[in-house]
Design goal:
Blueprint lengths: L1 H15 L7 E6 L18 H6 L1 E9 L3 E2 L6 E3 L3 E4 L6 E3 L6 E6 L5 E5 L1 E4 L6 E7 L2 E5 L2 E3 L6 E3 L5 E12 L6 E3 L4 E12 L6 E4 L9 E6 L2 E3 L4 E6 L7 E6 L2 E3 L3 E6 L5 E6 L2 E3 L3 E6 L2 E4 L4 E2 L9 E3 L4
Parallel strand pairs: 1-2, 2-5, 3-6, 4-7, 5-8, 6-9, 7-10, 8-11, 9-12, 10-13, 11-14, 12-14, 13-15, 14-16, 15-17, 16-18, 16-19, 17-20, 18-21, 19-22, 20-23, 21-24, 22-25, 23-26, 24-27, 25-28, 27-29
Length: 316
């Protein structure tokens, strides 16, 4: 009887050191938290992974103060959740060497939202944010930079999915700033996004990984792609794969290899430009098999030679 009582006390001690799983609608993390806590406002957790385990699907995790919140490991999100930094401090994510800061492997109906995060690869992290599965990803007020691969990879294998990025900076990454490369159909909206000084493309919509029965459509507004080694804004697909289009409105492509570009057999890649500026690029535009349409109200000047033709189209 005494032995059984002692075992019970020992077990209770172990259980008390583990946070409750998936119980909170609202969870909290803080620099003074502890991952053995319940992740509540009065007893916050220290790292995001512990808070994710304690938060129900559709719940929210709030970050309470300035700190690093991944503990040197990848943050893996497997259900619908919002991670929110209300502002006024830095919520840092440092991807592990050769790894990813945040990976989303959520369910087909799950919406994931990230707000106010600073993800810095420090020249060793491979990717800032990688979306593999889920219904949608919303990124707001985030900074993603200094990755050895891409800043943001949207590689959704969900049949239909959506990406929204707003008020965010994606810069100084070795390859692409933002890569939209689903295997199904996808829509994307980029509003007030800066994609600067990336080794390859600023914002790259690629349909070559998706079947020809799917479509990939991206809209970019009030955004800037500057100093990228290849193309500022690009729409690209392959023969027999998903038709891919990018609509560029009230945006700037400056000091890139190409300001804007399309590549796609038979016109399956399209990029439309309205009320936008292309300047200081080595080439203003690239229209290689794809189509670059202009509504005639753009400011295109101060670039090097262009490749392919700009197609004028009328407003409706």
């Amino acid at each position: 009887m005494i032995a059984a009582f002692a075992v019970g006390l020992a077990l209770a001690g172990v259980l008390s050191a583990v946070p409750a799983l998936a119980q909170n609608q609202h969870s909290f993390v803080s620099s003074f938290g502890n991952d053995a806590n319940a992740c509540t406002l009065t007893a916050p957790c220290r790292h995001l992974q512990a808070a994710l385990m304690a938060t129900i699907s559709g719940g929210e995790i709030a970050i309470l103060n300035t700190a690093g919140y991944n503990g040197g490991t990848t943050v893996t999100i497997s259900h619908a959740v919002s991670i929110v930094n209300p502002g006024g401090f830095e919520a840092a994510i440092a991807p592990p060497s050769g790894g990813t800061g945040i990976i989303i492997n959520a369910g087909p109906n799950d919406a994931v939202s990230l707000r106010g995060l600073s993800i810095d690869g420090a020249g060793v992290g491979a990717t800032g944010i990688q979306f593999n599965t889920g219904a949608s990803l919303t990124i707001e007020n985030c900074i993603v930079r200094h990755m050895t691969n891409d800043g943001i990879d949207f590689l959704s294998t969900t049949p239909t999915s959506a990406l929204t990025v707003s008020n965010s900076l994606v810069a100084d990454n070795t390859n692409d700033g933002i890569l939209l490369q689903p295997t199904g159909s996808a829509t994307a909206v980029f509003n007030r996004v800066e994609a600067n000084n990336n080794g390859l493309n600023g914002i790259f919509a690629y349909g070559g990984a998706s079947a020809g029965t799917n479509t990939i459509n991206a809209t970019v507004s009030d955004s800037v792609a500057a100093g990228n080694g290849s193309v500022g804004f690009q729409s690209f697909t392959l023969s027999g794969t998903a038709p891919t289009s990018v609509m560029l409105f009230h945006s700037v492509a400056a000091n890139n290899g190409f300001g804007v570009g399309t590549q796609g057999v038979g016109g399956a890649a399209t990029l439309r430009i309205a009320n936008s500026t292309l300047t200081g690029n080595s080439h203003g535009w690239l229209a290689s098999d794809g189509i670059v349409d202009s509504y005639g109200d753009n400011y295109i000047d101060g670039n090097g030679s262009n490749i392919g033709s700009l197609t004028p189209i009328s407003k409706q």
